[in-house]
Amino acid sequence: MKTRIKKIIDKYHSDKGFLVPILQDVQKEYNYLNREALNLVSAFLKVPISQLYELGTFYKAFSLEPRGRHEMKLCTGTACHVRGVPLIKDNIERVLQIQSGETTPDLEFTFETVNCLGACALGPILVVDGEYHGNISISKTNKILKKLGKKVKIDEES
Amino acid sequence: MKKVKTAQELKILQEEIQNSRDPEKPCITICAGTGCLTYGSQKLVDNFKAEIEKQNLNGKVEVRASGCHGFCERGPLVVINPQKILYQRVGLDDAEEIIKETILNGQIIDRLLYIDPVTQEKILHEDEIPFYKRQMRLVFGMNGNIDPNSLEDYLAIGGYSALIKVLNGMEPETIIEEIKTAGLRGRGGGGFSMGLKWEATRNAPGLPKYIICNADEGDPGAYMDRSLLEGNPYSILEGMLIGAYAIGSNTGYIYVRNEYPLAVKNITIAVEKARKLGILGENILGSGFDFDVVIVRGGGAFVCGEETALIASIEGRSGEPRAKYVFPAERGLYNKPTNINNVETWANVPLVINKGAEWYRSIGTENSKGTKIFALVGKINNTGLVEVPMGITLREIVYDIGGGIPKGRKFKAVQVGGPSGGCIPESHLDLQVDFDALSKVGSMMGSGGMIVMDDRTCMVDVALYFLKFLEEESCGKCTPCREGVHQMRLILERITEGNGKEEDLKTIEWMGKAIIDGSLCGLGGTAPNPVLTTLRYFRDEYEAHIKGKTCPAGVCKALITYTIDPDLCTGCMVCARICPVEAATGEKKEVHFIDQNKCIKCGACFESCKFDAVKVS
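The joint structure predicted for all components is written out below.
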């Protein structure tokens, strides 16, 4: 791990001004900000660990917990909101039995809401593992969840 | 491309590229902005390229993946040049037919044309479509003509002419005067004069000076900055180069949302290509002027769109704003004089320099000059990005350009300016849109989100939505914002749950005023706007929730019930099959029934019923 962290820090010439991008890259490497990695960043750059935790909790991009195998991001921008996203959000939370921002205990799913993805013509939008699904509804969401292995009731005939 | 060493060399290169291009050569332009990419337009680009290969048309027909054209509703969009034929909702398999029929045989494919919803007429050309016809696409219109990764394309449409003009002997003071005279105001929300900001930064003591492009576009429902960065990154660099030269800065930052991967990619490529060509770096075009930019990806915090928070974020700290007794123009990034403008504002700069302040001034209203790009979204037929001259009425935007409300429903309000803005009712539809007129009715220009709402939108729910958003995004530094917005949210939540009290409305009104007066930055200072404007124009809806315990729009879960209309139900059993809690039941071909004790109001039956038999009341 030491060399991988060092490599990231070197990319930014050990400049403390790039703490946010450094942590972004660390998160990309390990899928979350784990304690060990943060300790290494702290030691390499000589910044207090508390400062790294401050950034880790302030910015939405960071997660201090491991993330699920499938990432679901539901756009909750205003345009999607007025087109019925709240009911879709409730539905996903009910099926996955977690709240938005959480990961299922089996580490299969992480579900988050995001502010406006800027594809409002296609709203409501759900991004599953980087793939955009536009004009989604409760039933479309359920079909996606079923494909990913969740037990949900869908209307097979339609 | 070889490095250019003087403005003259760049001019020659520009002319060479322009002369080498045959305006009559067929060019298929496919929109590859984020909206159209979501429809799968990258595949369409590949299909066109493969088809050209197959038909041996290499070199005879161009294929260009361009930035966003704006008419996202009708994507994927394909424009055939030079005729400017617009094909909309193009299928991924249509490439072959388009090449065979339109390119080779000159035949129009009828089914891909846009149909005017009013006259039912088929429209052939892009600029004849009502959505485009009423716009004035000075800044955004270039998107369709260039491949965002091609510096040649930008030069071919006259790009960097403004830079050449500036480096050919325009004094920094003259440039600033030009921008001031043009009346160019910041497009990011504040609406402050760009020229005055430049002047203040130039005159402030202290070196080095910095300039920043704020591309942390966080307002939900606004995406024009992203589309500009994705579609025409060179124009933003050109604007920044001119600004840096005028201000006397050698380093610029572009702070862009990490949620915009394509924008990050395209601006990064643009910066690299500009460096290679010699228009970024040391001694640019032999003028002795050095300038380079650093791209910083944001961490996903709405408040970082606020300039002092953004500066804190670039410095590697958490993005908390500070009180602005001293403006960033005097002490900004690393306590040095710093000028911040947003993407759209920077993109306007080359236009002013090329065409002159007097020309620019001729567009718009008395105190708001030029055009503004709005994101027209929500319950509207033609969702998309629209660029209009200041002073156009809301009615023209919503009905003439936007094509009105889908499904024949009734217009209720348009929310302008993001979470800091306000909801404008039908009675103000003839308002002439500019910075001051919007403020007068309690809204604001903001970054230019325009969310249209119909009679199925609950205004209390909308206000609550924005409060929740702002509560989450409040950095927590000052108390009025942190605690005030939280308390307001609790009250509104109570109202939507049917537990509102009559005095609640008075409480949120005075709380709103207190939060506006007491907050440190613009986030808190405008946070109560959505609540105060909905209360001002839609008080009856609040009262219906509080006194009548009803939600007239049928949105607030606690106040609605789903029932089945026996006259419309055909007994198709769809609702019974999908109901997650077995509340909807019934036999085949018999009227179904919803057990209110079991119903969790998930809305699945309402959404799925093909006969509109499920009613919400």
